[in-house]
């Protein structure tokens, strides 16, 4: 059975037609801060808007520590056209013993609606089935975040249901939509 550190100690660079997905680094602080300080970007994520670049450095320090320790992490999403880091996509958690994991992603608002985060999400779903030996990949979004639900559908995921008042986020109970794709469903789409 694979271990988390087998995959995430040396995260590979993944490439698509329009994107490069690479390990995050402290050098990404300014690019990340540029989108993480946008209240519309942070609206449907569990983290608060970044008030200063110090918030971004604190987050990136945690990510880099996780990468060095071989813990589950996200890739920097780099736009080839913009030649800059414009978001993140990766794994939120992974249970190797059950061969399942959850993905998450975020993208700068200036690039919404272009299919970029769907492209990144499909790439990490493919990675999960080919490299992490997953049988099931899950994702969830705030009920109101229809754009994120569409990303999950573009990845071939099936809507599994609503979890009412599932988590308390930023002081309020929030309902989430849950999606998943199974290995056999992914293989059928190849």
Give a short synopsis of this structure:
The protein has 190 residues and is α+β, with helices and mostly antiparallel strands. The chain has one domain (4-188): Gcn5-related N-acetyltransferase (GNAT) (Aminopeptidase, 3-Layer(aba) Sandwich), CATH 3.40.630.
Could you please describe the fold and organization of this structure?
By secondary structure, this protein is of the alpha+beta class. It has one domain (4-188): Gcn5-related N-acetyltransferase (GNAT) (Aminopeptidase), CATH 3.40.630.30. 33% of the residues lie in helices and 33% in strands. The protein has seven helices and eight strands. The protein has helices at residues 4-8, 29-36, 39-42, 53-68, 116-130, 146-154, 183-188; strands at 14-15, 19-23, 74-79, 84-95, 100-107, 136-142, 158-169, 172-182. It has an eight-stranded mixed β-sheet with strand order 1-2-3-4-5-6-8-7, with helices on both faces. Helix 5 (116-130) links the parallel strand 5 and strand 6. The longest helix has 16 residues, at 53-68. The chain is globular, with a radius of gyration of 16 Å.
